[in-house]
User: Which sequence fits this backbone?
């Protein structure tokens, strides 16, 4: 069969397209709006997409003038000019304009037009194909509005504002307030970088801002002294925050003069200190007056015992009140005092006088403190432990007064006792908690101070290698550059290890993580830990494990026990030659298990053994071996939480022996996740 010619195929296709149905179906398949107009702007064809967008059907709009039907008044002339150019075969052929739909809303279209000519070369039809870009137009207009608002706020803001390039840290624009604060003309600030202006100390601070914003979405704010062009200094609050309105990475710099606030704050601190001093002086004066008033009250009460009203008050008082004669015999006890002594309210005092006198006349506090104070000062005030006969010991705040006649002879004694058992317990608990917080704060302070010292060497290594690479990197060969990159990597790993150990110490010290007590197969845990440590440090190292029982089980926290074993095995491998053995023994102990780890390494000098558990301390013979100096401290802190102990012995050049004794925690009561609290 003979192949048809190209001309024949084209002719057949064109004849096919002459069918109106075929052409309409083809135009209706377009996703965009298709409109066919005559040279006078009348609508001939309207595809389905145009019907859906405008709300008008083709039958409704055929023959109508497009400009009168869809175009806003302000757009009509511009579009007519465009079509006039099209009729004259001139550009533009692409443009954007809004249409007013049947529902009264504006839709924006981006048009591409085609002119169809007749056989005489005149314009027969204009085919317009448009894409609905209303969403893009709204976003564009919103961005323009936002930028205009930002520009107004930026210029009129009473604070100093500047736009900074995210790449070079140079100022691309600033308001007049910013320029006046630095006493530099605005035109001279454009193009200046923040470091040369003294606003940022180093470009690395900018890297910190970008990192923090990318990760947490926050900005940087700091307060620091700033200098003006004339040399004067003001206290400024500087804020840097990434901004997404610009096309290129941009930072918004805010500069506030807070010199007045700083001065006011300093003055307020001084006023507060003066006020605190005056309050302390007043409190001391008040305490003196209070003591004098208490003494006076005691005297008056003794003189007014004959008053029935006062007796009723004393009888019902919550404090225990007793009156003794000059020889110490009890002559009166109120209701609270009787209850304290285990007496009822009706038994006469005479029945118990001898018993009370004989029982308490030789009481140590009475002999050593009360009687001498009463004879010399006429009053004794203090605290006393009181055994009421039950198993519980009470704490009493006691005041005893000696009442004398005009000749100075003691007539009687009065005693007031207040039960402060609960207050005592709360006070002691507060003291213990305060001491613990004080010790925690001391440790944290020491750790922070020591950490800054420990970080100095790796940071110096990173800085020096970075500067050398920056200066000579293009001149050096790859091997030399790789050496400095390896130095930077090693220093970073040291810092990472040190940070990890410090976090472990702080979490153990703060007891942030609750204990998870569960039965643990100690032999299995030790074997798994040994494999992990050996594979990480020295895969060929030989470790000997001996255990009295096949599966020794201990109720403890497996994670803390793993930390203990990991640090001890790491030390044993690091500080001993690779051709030596590591020995581990598991034995039974009273109420628990004992683990012994022995190595044949360099050992520790005897005079340094007491210092090994101090933070950041490393033996003098370990130079050249990496380590943070926190491993044994982590072990000690973990064992404190596990109710365990550690014993460390060593002989120089003959190795070390570490013995850990663990307590079974299954019988401890858990409170807030802690055993035995």
Assistant:
């Amino acid at each position: 069969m003979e192949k048809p010619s190209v001309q024949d195929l084209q002719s057949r296709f064109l004849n096919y397209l002459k069918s109106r149905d075929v052409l309409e179906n083809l135009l209706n398949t377009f996703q965009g709006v298709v409109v066919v107009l005559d040279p006078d702007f009348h609508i001939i064809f309207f595809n389905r997409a145009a019907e859906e967008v405008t709300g008008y059907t083709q039958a409704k709009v055929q023959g109508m003038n497009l400009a009168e039907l869809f175009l806003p008044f302000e757009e009509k002339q511009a579009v007519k000019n465009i079509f006039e150019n099209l009729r004259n075969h001139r550009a533009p052929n692409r443009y954007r304009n809004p249409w007013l739909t049947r529902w009264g809303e504006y839709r924006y279209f981006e048009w591409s037009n085609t002119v169809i000519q007749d056989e005489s070369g005149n314009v027969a039809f204009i085919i317009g194909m448009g894409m609905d870009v209303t969403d893009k137009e709204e976003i564009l207009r919103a961005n323009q509005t936002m930028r205009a608002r930002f520009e107004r706020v930026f210029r009129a803001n009473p604070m100093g504002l500047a736009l900074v390039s995210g790449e070079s840290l140079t100022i691309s624009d600033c308001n007049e307030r910013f320029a006046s604060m630095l006493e530099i003309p605005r035109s001279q600030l454009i193009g200046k970088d923040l470091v040369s202006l003294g606003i940022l100390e180093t470009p690395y601070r900018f890297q910190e801002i970008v990192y923090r914003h990318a990760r947490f979405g926050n900005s940087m704010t700091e307060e620091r002294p700033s200098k003006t062009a004339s040399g004067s200094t003001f206290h400024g609050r500087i804020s840097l925050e990434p901004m997404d309105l610009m096309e290129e990475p941009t930072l918004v710099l805010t500069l506030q003069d807070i010199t007045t606030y700083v001065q006011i704050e300093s003055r307020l601190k001084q006023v507060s200190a003066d006020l605190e001093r005056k309050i302390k002086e007043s409190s001391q004066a008040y305490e003196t007056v209070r003591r004098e008033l208490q003494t006076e009250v005691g005297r008056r009460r003794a003189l007014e015992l004959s008053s029935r009203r006062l007796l009723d008050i004393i009888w019902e008082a919550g404090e225990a009140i007793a009156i003794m004669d000059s020889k110490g015999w009890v002559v009166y006890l109120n209701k609270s005092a009787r209850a304290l002594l285990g007496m009822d309210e009706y038994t006469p005092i005479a029945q118990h006088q001898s018993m009370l006198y004989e029982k308490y006349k030789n009481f140590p506090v009475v002999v050593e403190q009360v009687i001498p104070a009463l004879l010399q000062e006429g009053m004794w005030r203090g605290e006393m432990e009181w055994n009421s006969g039950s198993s519980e010991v009470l704490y009493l705040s006691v005041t005893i007064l000696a009442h004398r006649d005009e000749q100075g002879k003691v007539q009687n004694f009065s005693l007031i006792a207040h039960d402060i058992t609960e207050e005592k317990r709360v006070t002691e608990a507060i003291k213990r908690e305060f001491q613990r917080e004080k010790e925690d704060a001391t440790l944290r302070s020491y750790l922070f101070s020591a950490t800054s010292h420990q970080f100095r060497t790796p940071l110096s290594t990173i800085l020096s290698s970075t500067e050398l690479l920056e200066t000579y990197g293009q001149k050096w060969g790859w091997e030399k550059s790789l050496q400095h990159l390896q130095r930077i990597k090693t220093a970073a790993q040291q810092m990472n290890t040190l940070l990890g150990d410090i976090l472990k110490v702080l979490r153990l010290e703060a007891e942030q993580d609750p204990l998870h007590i569960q039965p643990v197969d100690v032999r299995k845990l030790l074997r798994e830990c040994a494999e992990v440590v050996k594979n990480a440090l020295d895969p060929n190292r030989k470790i000997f494990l001996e255990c009295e029982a096949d599966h020794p089980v201990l109720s403890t926290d497996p994670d803390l026990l793993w930390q203990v074993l990991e640090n001890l095995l790491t030390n044993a491998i690091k500080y001993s030659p690779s051709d030596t053995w590591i020995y581990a023994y598991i034995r039974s102990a009273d109420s628990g298990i004992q683990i012994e780890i022995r190595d044949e390494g360099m050992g520790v000098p005897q005079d340094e053994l007491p210092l090994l558990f101090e933070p950041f301390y490393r033996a003098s013979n370990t130079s050249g071996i990496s380590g943070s100096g926190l491993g044994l401290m982590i072990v000690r802190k973990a064992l404190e939480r596990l109710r365990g102990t550690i014993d460390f012995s060593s002989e120089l050049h003959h190795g070390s022996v570490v013995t850990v004794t663990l307590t079974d925690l299954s019988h401890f009561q858990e409170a807030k996740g802690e055993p035995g609290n």
Notes: Residues 669-677 have pLDDT under 50 and may be disordered. The chain has five domains: 17-132, 149-257, 304-419, 436-506, 513-675. The radius of gyration is 46 Å. Residues 513-675 form a domain with the Heat Shock Protein 90 fold (CATH 3.30.565.10).
